[in-house]
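FAQ

Q: What does a record look like?
A: Structure on top, sequence underneath. For example:
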């Protein structure tokens, strides 16, 4: 079997961290820009954190000053680390699929998440799954999710050499995960464990679609035998 690279989204694919991440946005915008906003009607599922920061600045007619953006990211990380994450939990099947994939010697596991890297790892550490990941593409680095996929592939290739796009799998819960995978020319396994229902995801024609990660063996079959 050729080497396969499996790249997991974090929120609503592996875990649910409640509103902690949104709270970090609110606190950072207040501290850095003295701007109040609430996240009712939050429509940013599958956006990268940098993209969300840009959107929120644009909506409030705030110039995208790079120094302010850097500061917002710093404050978000600080604030997030202060969260107790008492409402965070792993989604069903997440730990099982990670454990099984780890035993596959031709599979390398990484992340592609809209999260700022330190926030992603804070969530993963809190739920004791950080050790499964050795690389990733993270949401403070680009507003374009497909670029995060390319960054993760680049990191993986530094470790194990050339990886064909057809051997790369994105696992994610939003239509943005599907679109990003398409744009990057890689495969996508969608899971209906987030804000998008099974039918809604199906309309976007993911390569594979599951209601959740509970049917671990089927998901692993797809990865190994495709
Ligand atoms: Mg997600």
């Amino acid at each position: 079997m050729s080497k396969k690279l499996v790249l997991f989204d974090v929120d609503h694919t592996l875990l649910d961290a409640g509103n902690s991440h949104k709270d970090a946005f609110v606190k950072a915008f207040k501290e850095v820009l003295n701007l109040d906003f609430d996240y009712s009607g939050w429509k940013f599922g599958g956006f990268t954190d940098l993209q969300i920061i840009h959107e929120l600045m644009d909506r409030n007619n705030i110039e995208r000053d790079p120094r302010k953006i850097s500061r917002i990211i710093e404050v978000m990380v600080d604030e997030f680390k202060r969260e107790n994450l008492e409402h965070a939990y792993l989604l069903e099947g997440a730990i099982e699929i990670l454990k099984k994939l780890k035993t596959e010697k031709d599979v390398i596991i990484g992340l592609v998440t809209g999260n700022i890297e330190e926030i992603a790892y804070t969530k993963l550490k809190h739920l004791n799954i950080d050790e499964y990941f050795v690389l990733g593409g993270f949401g403070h680095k680009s507003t374009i999710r497909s670029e995060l996929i390319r960054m993760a592939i680049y990191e993986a290739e530094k470790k194990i050499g050339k990886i064909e796009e057809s051997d790369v799998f994105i696992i994610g819960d939003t239509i943005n995960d599907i679109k990003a995978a398409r744009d990057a020319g890689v495969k996508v396994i969608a899971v209906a464990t987030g804000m998008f229902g099974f039918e809604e995801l199906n309309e976007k024609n993911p390569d594979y679609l599951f209601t959740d990660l509970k049917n671990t063996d089927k998901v692993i079959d797809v990865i190994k035998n495709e």
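Q: Is there anything notable about this one?
A: The two ends are 10 Å apart (CA to CA).
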